Amino acid sequence: MAERDEAAPIRVALLGCGTVGGNVLRLVTTHAEELAAQVGRPIELVGVAVRSLDEVPAGMDPTLFTDDAASLVARDGLDIAIELIGGTEVAGRLVRSAIAHGVSVVTANKALLGAHGDALFAAADAAGVDLYYEAAVAGAIPIIRPLRESLVGDQVTTVMGIVNGTTNYILDKMTSEQLSFEQALAQAQRLGLAEADPTADVEGFDAASKAAILASLSFHTWVSADQVYREGITHLTPDDIRAAERAGCVLKLLAVTQLLDDGRVSARVHPAMVPRTHPLASVSGAYNAIFLLAREADRLMFLGPGAGGAPTASAVVGDLVTVARNRRRGVASPSRVAAASRAVAPMGEVSSHYHLRFVVADEPGILASVAAVFAAHRVSVRTVNQSAPEGTPEAVAQLSLMTHLAREADVQACLADLDGSPFLRGPITLIRVEGV
Amino acid sequence: MAERDEAAPIRVALLGCGTVGGNVLRLVTTHAEELAAQVGRPIELVGVAVRSLDEVPAGMDPTLFTDDAASLVARDGLDIAIELIGGTEVAGRLVRSAIAHGVSVVTANKALLGAHGDALFAAADAAGVDLYYEAAVAGAIPIIRPLRESLVGDQVTTVMGIVNGTTNYILDKMTSEQLSFEQALAQAQRLGLAEADPTADVEGFDAASKAAILASLSFHTWVSADQVYREGITHLTPDDIRAAERAGCVLKLLAVTQLLDDGRVSARVHPAMVPRTHPLASVSGAYNAIFLLAREADRLMFLGPGAGGAPTASAVVGDLVTVARNRRRGVASPSRVAAASRAVAPMGEVSSHYHLRFVVADEPGILASVAAVFAAHRVSVRTVNQSAPEGTPEAVAQLSLMTHLAREADVQACLADLDGSPFLRGPITLIRVEGV
User: Fold this and answer.
1) Is B173 labeled as catalytic in the residue annotation?
2) Which residues of B216-226 are buried (b: 16+ CB within 10 A; e: fewer)?
3) Would you call B341 exposed, middle or buried from its count of C-beta atoms within 10 A (0-12, 13-18, 19+)?
């Protein structure tokens, strides 16, 4: 970084001026004095890159805006680029260019970091610039900073998060109003809480990017989004919700990452039953929460809005101040994401608790047959519940099992063995249980 | 700070080796390699100050220990002092001496910061050294760092915390097991959750120190512990617990600090009814939680263990790493606690919601008399509930009122006017309501 005049402003470029970018623009312009006091130098916004110059917000100086983001990032004397474009292509090129030009970066782009974080962090560390991304996981909740700084003297062992507000809202509605997935999704879309194409949310892609970032940060290793086991919520039914309720649980889409005993990492996104007494169980609506276990600090939870222009902008501006202070002092904070090199354990080798539900013929000896299959695969059953579902013509029984901690592969082997059994009257439903 | 060899270790002195200090000692010695990687230099523990050399833990190098803390702090080339002695006298002298010697300080001492934080922060800023104190408020919960860094681009407006695990445990027991205050306190003492002299906890002194720190940090001004309005929990009865339950609330001892519309600050510690649906309501046992409102970030909550050797040590070591990194790079983070200068509003000028409960003669016209007093003082009543308490010989009625937002002084004026009324059959009970 070149030596510069002590009073020279910190020069900032804003890339993208949508919901979050517009709020960042508002905060940076209306809080200029306070930000200058915090940083110890004025923040000078040198340019805002937009897709089209038709997008310039009313009342703003039009000369500040450009549709040539690439030139803005390469502008001489630029200190910090705030990337709020999203996606991996254009945004990736701009972030790489910024770093190559010695410019520090603040981004809220989970997809970009989840896919290419390793290369970007390494490039930033090599260039001696900051790459901050508090807003990329769980919106305004300060989770990156605690993991990156407060807990560095500790060993995080598990991070479990509700990191997607859309799916949390849908599951909430399915629970409180007995809606089907399709009905709840339609409601979320009407309220603007789900996109017209909801795939990224309801299939768990968004949560998987965040799980990858959380895993990388918590365990100082690189985990990419495509290494995260992923299962969405589209197949969940009101029967699953009721089964969770009967088990004293609520259904949540969780991003889970764990340090395994053998030093490997598990990273996964899937629906999970969470006991009603667990702090995550009461996180409702579009809120996000991160629950973590650490060797020394025990149990911590962070709760807050997971999205929204103003909350996300708050996190971005918090990063901006830290990066600007670093810039003023000529220092940068290394990401250390690649300090350890840990393998990601395949899902089959991960252990969890399982809730299994299946309809069987109501005949003698069936429970014994089922129990024998579980015993053969060393899956220990914790509770069994047999009930007679209403309104079924045939004499059938519904069997619910909760297992003790069991290996995924062993549980899947049980399901494979049971599949096609003459006494089965429908498919077997498997839902993992976390936080027990 | 003198220039030093790039590979020279960061020299650290530990002051105090009790529950927290012992855990810090363990973490620093057993995690030496990881900490060196995080800091970019080895951490060298140059000495541990204990009250008496009889206290040296088994298996530790005895030459490391000293009962002369003053000389240890003044030792040549010391980088960081970790103060875990507690109290204001000895600890205060040592922290001031460390700062005067150009040594950065990490402390968990809420009493010291609550009483003398302004002078200490100013001295640290003037000396260009760090003064970090994550462990001073809410143990292992990373709350100082988010307030100091993540939210600097935002405006925090309210912080409400359950910051004392002892009183939270006592109130929990009074609620779940219908115990009296005295019974619940005795149980907490048996479990080691309350001291033999519980005054600092149950009278709210401990919480007031933390409220002062939170207010100072959130609003960039100096609030000392003796400016915090303080009311403990010793007067609470099972009747109060039941009244809270009937109002759909739970009773918590809260530390509350708010930025008022006129720019002044309110800082107070008192029991409060919290609606059962509020995130703070479900914080149970010895856990702590900080709930905050910010203009942009909306609602955030942080939950975790409020005390305990290992969790508190985790927070101390997190600070140690940050301060050591700063030290290595020759920088320090100013506290900015005194950036704004805000007055603390007297309790009478603070507005809240109030729950009032009193027993009156069961005669016609009394509700009208009571209502007239509230109207005269412009206190707007939100709900009224009149019931006949069981087992009373005389014909009496129990009256419960919940007010809308009202000025404390106006509510107190109502109570003064009602005091001595011929229809009153006992004292009036006032409990504030927060989080509505």
Assistant:
1) no
2) bbbbbbbbbbe
3) exposed
CA B396 vs. chain centroid, Å, equals 40
Query: What is the spatial distance between Cα A315 and Cα B151, in angstroms, rounded to a whole number?
Result: 7
Nearest CA in chain A to B300: A304
Q: Are A304 and B301 an interchain contact pair (Cβ–Cβ within 8 Å)?
A: yes
Rounded-to-10 torsion of CA A407, A409, A411, A413: -150
Write out the two tokens for B331.
């920088």
Measured distance CA(B335)–CA(B337) in Å, rounded = 5
Residues of chain A contacting B318 with CB distance shorter than 8 Å: 149-154
The two structure tokens encoding residue B274: 């919290």
Contacts of A39 (CB under 8 A, 6+ apart): A10, A321, A324, A325, A328
Task: Give me the sign of the Cα torsion angle B40, B45, B46, B51.
Answer: positive
CA B426 – CA B230 distance, rounded (Å): 24
Angle at B418 between CA B412 and CA B420, to 5 degrees: 120
Instruction: Please identify every residue of A annotated as catalytic.
Output: 210
Indicate if the alpha-carbon torsion angle B347, B349, B354, B356 is positive or negative: positive
Q: Please tell me the distance in Å from B193's CA to the nearest CA on chain A.
A: 17
Amino acid at B161: G
CB-based contact (8 Å) between B403 and chain A? no
Task: Scan for tokens 């897709």, then name that residue.
Answer: A51
**Is B26 touching A (CB cutoff 8 A)?**
no
The CA R_g of chain A, rounded to the nearest whole Å, is 24
Residue identified by tokens 């959380």 is: A214
Residues of A in contact with B145 (CB under 8 A): 142, 145-146, 149-150
Q: Which member of B142, B303, B329 has the closest CB to residue A279?
A: B303
Q: Nearest-CA residue of chain B relative to A32?
A: B153
Rounded to an integer, what distance in angstroms lies between the CA atom of residue B127 and that of residue A124?
Answer: 32
Angle between helices B165-176 and B181-190 (to 10 degrees): 120
Q: Please answer whether residues B184 and B190 qualify as being in contact, where contact means their C-beta atoms are separated by less than 8 angstroms.
A: no
State both tokens at A256.
């889970």
* H-type alpha helices, B191-308: 199-202, 205-219, 238-246
Per residue of chain A (436 residues), what is the pLDDT tens digit?
Answer: 444 566 799 999 999 999 999 999 999 999 998 899 889 899 999 999 999 998 888 888 899 999 999 999 999 999 999 999 999 999 999 999 999 999 999 999 999 999 999 999 999 999 999 999 999 998 889 898 888 888 888 899 999 999 999 999 999 999 999 999 999 999 999 998 999 999 999 999 999 999 999 999 999 899 999 999 999 999 999 999 999 999 999 999 999 999 999 999 999 999 999 999 898 998 988 889 999 999 999 999 999 988 889 999 999 999 999 999 999 988 888 776 667 789 999 999 999 999 999 999 988 888 899 999 999 999 999 999 888 777 766 788 889 999 999 999 999 999 999 998 999 988 999 999 999 9
ipTM: 0.85
Whether B313 contacts chain A with CB within 8 A? yes
